[in-house]
Design a protein that fits this description.
The complex is a heterodimer of chains A (106) and B (264). Chain A is mostly helical. Chain A has helices spanning 2-24, 32-37, 41-55, 70-85, 88-105. Classes of the chains: A mainly alpha (106), B mainly alpha (264).
Amino acid sequence: MRLWLIIIAAGLATYGIRLSVLVFVHHSALPPPMRIALRFVTPAVLAAIILPAVVYTGGNGAFDLGAANPRVFAAIAAAVIAYATKSVWATIGAGMTVLWLLQWAL
Amino acid sequence: MLRRRPKPVDQPIDVRPTDDFDARAEFAAGVRAQLPILLGVTPFGLAYGAYAVKSGLSSALAQAMSSIVFGGASQFVAVRLIADGIPGAVIVLAVLLVNLRHMLYSASLAPHTDRLPARWRWLLAYLLTDEAYATAIVRYRRADASPHKHWFAFGSGLALWVCWQISTALGVIVGTAVPDSWSLDFALPLTFLAILMPQLRDRAAVGAATVAALVAVAGFRWPYATGLLTAMLLGMLAGVIIAHWSPPPIDTDAPDARGVAEPA
């Protein structure tokens, strides 16, 4: 029962965070510098999730930015394809293919 | 560079299903936008479900957490702290800290959902995750005037939610069915890469992304995703500073000048 209460409280806290500006506080009440900064939420969060997933192998593994880390090369190939095609599936296809080939070859 | 946002119209936009096809098409497009992400989320959900029961949580509690909290990384943290016998208040605070960045998503989406009825904003907030935000914001910033973009956000959020519940259940029941050697987890950063690249159109966006990426790597082992949160805040700060000192982009007069430029 105690654990259920903890999970419900954690869920309410999380929901409160997500509701914050969508429901509780109107965005026009935010200070103008913050509203300018919000333009950069998207590039910042995407890049901040991508790079650690590339250089820390296995998601939670060791830092590896060397020639033995196939994810570095897979990510570079995927970035080129993403830039050229703007296609999500082409990007995944390129990235996973390079990753699998290098994993198989190394 | 920023134009003053038009004042919200007092009258809420009509979201009754008068234009079924358009709403349905937006919903379907939202689901489709989420599909490549699901490829990477599924093994994550399996891993969570397996980890939760292995750590001593009941199947019901493990499953319930996926719908009550609905936040992957924070659920892993909660499971570990529960297994370690940490006091409940600390667990709640840790989850709150891990998910604090969602406030930035809430603030980023809010100008686009101004005129939606409250029930829609409560619904979209419940579904607001990294993955749902990344897909929805791209749709919202596209310049077309579709009155049904919230259906896209709902479709993409719901697709993720359903996938998360099912993969949690499978993880609880059968364990981590996908071998690590498949590296399917890599599909998530690849999808985000495909979303990110077209956004790097001006120096400020590139600067924000670069700073955020480097800080995230440096702070990867900081507890409770504080490295990720710090990376986002410093990246945003870098973007603001660069935008302040560099000439405005050419498309300042585009209807979508408020956001990072988006391909049509």
